[in-house]
């Protein structure tokens, strides 16, 4: 779910950046 949301918000993000942002969002409790 979070990953899909990030893909929508950051369609131009590469997989590495996307993964890092997803990890950060999980740490933030999102």
Explain the overall architecture.
- This protein has one domain (1-30).
- 70% of the residues lie in helices and 0% in strands.
- The protein is built from 2 helices and no strands.
- It is flat, with a radius of gyration of 8 Å.
Q: Could you give the topology of this structure?
A:
Blueprint: H1 2-9, H2 15-27
Give the helix proportion (percent range).
over 70%
- Estimate nothing, just give the exact number of structural domains: 1
Contiguous uncertain segments of 5+ residues: none
Query: Describe the biggest sheet?
Result: none
Report, as a whole number of angstroms, the end-to-end distance: 11 Å
Write the H/E string, N to C: HH
Mean pLDDT across the residues is 72
Provide the structure class: mainly alpha
Counting DSSP E segments of at least 2 residues, the number of strands comes to 0
Radius of gyration: 8 Å
Determine the number of helices (DSSP H or I, runs of at least 4 residues).
Answer: 2
Principal-axis shape: flat
- The percent range for strand residues is under 5%
Keywords:
single chain, 30 residues, mainly alpha, flat
Question: What's a concise summary of this model?
Answer:
This protein has 2 helices and no strands.
């Amino acid at each position: 779910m979070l990953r899909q949301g990030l893909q929508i918000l950051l369609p131009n993000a590469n997989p590495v950046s996307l993964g890092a942002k997803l990890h950060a969002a999980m740490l933030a409790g999102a």
